[in-house]
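User: Hi! I'm working on a homework problem where we have to compare a predicted structure to a textbook description. Could you give me the structure for the chain below?
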Amino acid sequence: MRFFNRSLFGLFLTVLTAGLLISAVYIFKNAQNERDTRNNRSRGERERSFTVFVLPIEVATIKPELIVFGEIISGRTLELRTSSGGALVQMSENFRKGGTVSKGELLFATDPSSLSADVQLANATVSEAKAELLEARDALILSNDELRASERQFALRIQAAKRQKSLLDRGVGTESALETAELSASNAEISSLGKRQAVANSMARINRAKSGLVRSKINLVEVQRKLSDISVTAKFNGVLNNVTGVLGGLVNANERLGELIDPNALEVSFRISSAQFANLASAKGGIKAVAVNVYFTGLNTLIPAIIERSSAAVGEGMTGREIFARLVGENAAAVRVGDFVTVKLKEPELQNVSLIPSTAASSKGEVLVVGDENRLRAVNVKILRKQGNNIIIQSGKLTGLNIVKQRTPQLGEGILIEPKFEGAIKIPIAPKGIVLTAEQQKKMLAHIKKGRMPDGVKKRIIDKITSGTIPKSMYDRITERMGP
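Assistant: Happy to help. Predicted structure tokens:
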């Protein structure tokens, strides 16, 4: 019995030990699984960062440049029209499209035959009016003489009537004699009144003759003017355009045969927005003081211009403001009416501003700034101007900070980044020209002189080469055509 109890107690201890071992293994296994789970969760939730190009904000003083497109127009144009119909009997050799004419040069003339006959008839009418006036004046002289004679006769008849009355009063005259004398005086008075009427008629005839003479002279001057207008001359030095007339052809009155354009009075017309107009108008001296440079497509030729006026109205279906600037300088001869050109205007200086890429800001003017622990934060800035692919912003609160160069959909406020620095954008400086050696000048001049191009363009290029310095683009173009 004692042996059996000892066996049971030993079995109990064995079972208890096995249970404790199993419990220890279970606890250890659970702890290890929990640790592995925690480590795996930590690795899966690790925060992601992005490598981003950033650039520092540098404060500067920038003079913005406004670039628009414009069209060359004529500031002085003369329409050439015929004053009367007929055949073209005279025509200048230069009267053709593109022809250059001088002031006072005869351009064309129509047949003067009918107008010459009209002038002769007008001269005859003037002569008739002069003869009528002379005759009216002679008639007035005769009428005055007759009036004076009639008045003397009336006076004599009055005296005779008084004498007969005096004789009758003394008893030596008769009633019949007195009556006859008074009737004679009455007839003389009536005759005098008729002569006065004749004088008045003569004076009226003179006035009518004078009026007729004036009308005939006016008609003569008008016909002579029409005769002189059949010959159309150039009112200023210029170039002809839209020429349609031919020698011997029939034309109608007031028919347009061409137009004369003054190449020294060209203007450029361009349109800017209302905000841009306000910015330019804020410059010292107003919009007329703004510097304007015109560049012709295909040529690296700078043509200075002076703003003269702006449109008085916006125009139906249009926006902004239309500006007109007059071209000045010798290079203005390189363009023609109808050419499309690039216009660059210098705006007033902006101080305490920065130039950044347009990709760095949103449409609402928001940029991403690198903050503490390389986390991004959004800052709203004021966009002042657009300059090509860059923008000018007011940089007061961003001075010394770094901003993201290009925004992407993945970037936003609070995102962790790894910044990669780039230098700030530099304000572009116009490239300098290439200085030519004497040998290069000689070779280029020989190549240009034997080339086929308009005389004006050739002269301009030769002048550039002769000056010793030419733009790089012109140098590359000429050397490429010259070959090795």
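For your comparison, note the following. The longest helix spans residues 113-170. The two ends are 125 Å apart (CA to CA). Good luck with the assignment!
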